[in-house]
């Protein structure tokens, strides 16, 4: 028995109506001998009172039920708002849901209120009243309701994630960019390589070399034409030509390079080489497999041929310069050959042959021909020159012009051939 039923019962039990003694005696006298009409009248009256009582009870109950329903609905709304704020279960009301509640005690009229997981049921037999079902929220309901919020959150997170990924990617690309320089030659002309790694396709690298020149590119080289101090910089631009990164490098010093130049003097087969270079600390000469380190040096060529003389100078900074010259060498066997002689004159020109101080260093062969090409004299000794006779033992040769040929071979194997004419003067 609920609270409302208890309250009605107490009112009926405690109900007192005013009664007078005279009226009661009159009622007894009239009912003492009941008639058929009186009996019927009593039954009708009782039924009328009962009907009126039932109607009154139903009206009062309906009013109270409506009041309670309104209060409960207000509590439901408050619970819904409170659940939304505190992330508690949300009360749901829907006529169609009533069919899903198989555990309801009355299929015609069921009102269920949920407060803090406590459920109370109020049942009535009024078939015309609207069905209200307030279900207890389950975990599946939470999952279904949260899906919308989760989807919105996911979409928002995905959008933000794309932006963050883009920002992170850009940040990663910037942080991952590596740049360096490599000095190939620090002396004029100075050669330096510039390199950028991990540069995105939509970015460009602009190098400023510090000598009022610049260039674009990931891997480039630059030549410094003058000595001095240079501070290169690197600027990274994005696709909108916005600067995203800059870097300054250590100062590069390009040193001056000495100039190699030389000359040479010739004395027979002796060559003297002299350097014209200045500010150098080291000289290096390379010739025919030998190396000399003096400022100047002499060299005797002993063979015919083409030779390259290479001259290198190095300064205090280690900068060097090299020059070279090609020399064509033709070894000369120096001796003198007279153009005429007088046999048997007891003079200086009494014999014909080569004259010189270094003839002993050569192997010699001399041939004499007349105008017809006939061999007149031949010798391979310097102490046996032509005396004007046929083969130096026969008759005196006719005065006139004769042809000669002298072949000399020095100690280095160089062979030289000289040809000429000589006038034999008669007595």
Describe this structure in words.
The structure is a single chain. The chain has 427 residues and is of the alpha+beta class. It has four domains: 112 residues, no CATH class; 78 residues, Immunoglobulins (Immunoglobulin-like), CATH 2.60.40.10; 68 residues, Immunoglobulins (Immunoglobulin-like, Sandwich), CATH 2.60.40.10; 85 residues, Immunoglobulin-like (Sandwich). It is 26% helix and 33% strand. It is built from four helices and 25 strands. It has a five-stranded mixed sheet, with no helix packed on it. The longest helix has 51 residues. The protein starts with a helix and ends with a strand. The relative contact order is 0.05. About 20% of the residues have low confidence.
Class computed from helices, strands and strand pairing: alpha+beta
Radius of gyration: 68 Å
Euclidean distance between termini CA atoms: 186 Å
* Main sheet characteristics: 5 strands, mixed
Are there runs of 5+ residues with pLDDT below 50, and where? 86-170
Shape: rod-shaped
Domain count? 4
The number of helical elements comes to 4
Helix content: 25-40%
Number of strands: 25
Please, what is the average pLDDT? 76
Topology order in helix (H) and strand (E) letters = HHHEEEEHEEEEEEEEEEEEEEEEEEEEE
